[in-house]
Amino acid sequence: MNGNPVDFAFTPAKGFDLLGLSGGTTATFLNGATIPAGQYEWVRLMIDPAAGSSYIIDAQGTQHNLIIPSGAESGLKLIQGFTMPAGGVADFTVDFVLSRSIIAPPGQAPDYMLKPVLRLVDNAQVGILTGTIQTAALGAPQTQCGTRAPVVYVYTGAAVTPDDIYVPASGPAPAVQPLVTATATLNSSSIYSYTIAFMPAGTYTVAFSCDADDPAVDESVQVPSAIEFTTYPQAVSVMNNMTTTADF
What we know:
Layout: E1 38-40, E2 43-45, E3 55-57, E4 63-67, E5 76-78, E6 82-84, E7 92-96, E8 102-103, E9 112-114, E10 118-122, E11 126-133, E12 151-156, E13 180-183, E14 185-186, E15 192-200, E16 202-209, E17 230-231, E18 236-238, E19 243-245
């Protein structure tokens, strides 16, 4: 609890394409490391301070700097306790919620800023949520997706009224925020499908939208163009080490 931190330095520094790590795809940055048994209170990821080491490539292929305030000084800190068993093995995943972590503050253009939303999950205590979105589900009241892929939003708890992602440049975000989102992809049968891994066991509200969501805009208050959702008709239960299906 009050012991010395356990540090792991990577030389050279490791880099990850976070956008490519979705749908259960992972990258390993610690494997087989020995850590003393006991209770741990937090994990901190230190960021390479070199200019250009963190960046975003937009849909047009243009590279933009990604500013990470205090990333090299205080790092990305997960204040989330865990237990390392004596003589045992523990397996954890750091899950970045990118849709809620990237902002474009006024005055920083064309650069972006990381306002990290991330969580540490015990891989023995999570499940998978998957499903499909049939063509019929893309009709009214939902705007036809056209060339846009539907995006699935997952909220903690049952009977949640879905709201868009809004990440203000300063101050707290709205109370209703999705735990995670996932863009559906067309499978070999030309049906949209989605997979969300590392879901903590629990009850969730699942919805999807074809509307483009701008995290810098609180679209729930835009009239008459508020974002539209199609909500799964019942609460969805995710269980440890199991796959739960929610088809629209």
